[in-house]
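Here is one such tokenized protein:
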Amino acid sequence: MSEVITVRQIVERYLASGSTTHREAQRHGRWWIDQLGDLPAQKLTAELIRRNLQTLAKRGRSGSTGNFYLRFIRRVCKWGLAQHLLPADPSEALSFQKEVAPDLRVLTESEEDALCAALGPPYGLWVRFAIATGLKQAEQFSLRWRDVDVKAGTVLIPDPSAGAVASLSLSPAAIDLLHELRTAHPASLWVFPDLRNPTRPANVHAFYTGRWHTAVQVAGIPWCAWKDLRTTCGVRLAKQGLSVDEITLLMRQRERRQAYYYRAWQPGQKYLNKPPRRRAELVFASLSPEELLQLIGRDIVRAPLSFREVCHLYAAHHLKGRPSQQQFQRMYRQFWRPWCDRLPAEITRKEIRLWYLGLESRPAAANKAATFLRGLYNWAIRMELLTCPNPVTGLIRFRQYARERFLTAEEVRRFMVGLPYLPIKPRAFLSVLLMTGSRRGEALGMRWSEIDLEHRLWRKSRTKNGTSQLVQIPVQVADALSLLPRESEWVFPGANGRHWSTTSADKTWAAIRARWNMNDVTLHDLRRSCASYMAISGENLPTIQNVLNHRSLHQTSVYARLNIGAVGRALQDQADRFSQLASVPSLAEASTAMSIEGG
């Protein structure tokens, strides 16, 4: 009789395997053992997991806390499935709860002064140092003087996620506070020592429950915790005009999301209610047939069209229904609005050249904008809306180097090994990109009505080049798609009834590629990898063109260089011929050898 494996045994084996480095894994594991430890692993279902997670909510725990416990059991199930301890992964059908924006408690300068006065010296310096550096409570109270370089203005902070230390640059205000702390405290190895026994660090619990609570009441300010000092630091950095990336780096956060919260905070605001994201402004509305005829038929001698009117016609008439219409409107908002009331004929070549050179740091965007602008003038001249020459003609473009990155064989192996351990949504999405060579936007906009899983067909109603495409889905992709729940018209649903957004997909891929050590691989590189390995395997260019749905073979011809089999054979044959020449003696060598033998 085979041994019955319980949930307790799987969790304990997972923790003992060293597969996780999360600090809270032990606590999460004990909780799941208390809830489901004696249950046979074969009977573990998604409903049982969901029911136990609901008990956390009933106890007043937040949705974020429930997500931590769900992440743990998902990792355990993935590991158990790989070790053949589970017949299936019951956690795949469960989704994470949407996390609400946190409540931000930010101290004003007057509240900071009142709190520091209530704490008294030297404890007020502790508060100011926390606000100046943004250190967490555990980081600050475990700080030693050997970790501080006052001259260089740096401090070393343990980084548990990397298993190393991180160097934090200190502001001039923080350095001044360190000098004051050095004189205010008795001699000690600790920057924040226990004042009664300087050989030990400060007793955080005693300080927090005794002195801190009393000081907040004496200061007469709304309640604030120590973590609110870190929040105050982040908000003040945002008010200084620092970018999101700079704030994230200085606060040593894994994601940029918190930095956006800091930037959105307003004085007097306790709760952070993010306004709904507004769609991009529509610059050029659709034109009725009457309006279109009126603009095109206008006498351009007596009433010439303005630059904005020409752009409006170009977007609403020439680019109508094309994917490039939105991109053109974005270019107009970004670059050309200052010219809106000018006449197109008044915009000189020199102005165009100066505008273009101002975008030297963004060569790709500059070249794309110049292409749109040249097309706009050429179209207007053909439609007899303009009589001036095209000022963009002859513009020397910035040199661009085409991206040639595709997965190496080792990266493909890591990709395929890690794929089964992903949640079903990103697993299916990445499978579509790599194994069908589809564009990111095409995969995100995939509808169930376009897919026939029985015959493994995907009919793309509209692609980037404006045509439809029929794709034969590989078996592996069909299997991954069949696991997805049909909760929406979209195969990959997102928020507010729309499909999965590009931002969310990119963020998910950024987290995955970091775990797989592919930090420089983009989602489009997966499409390029599909085509590259087809070329390396000897597939002909028309086949690759059909897979990528390129309009012309010229776009696909860049993959011809990867089919090096014929080149390799030719070089080897030539090398063999050269080698054979060394084994055949020349006439002079043969006559010399004969004379020696005759002598």
Observations:
- Residues 150 and 175 are 6 Å apart (CA to CA).
- Residues 63-82 form the longest helix (20 residues).
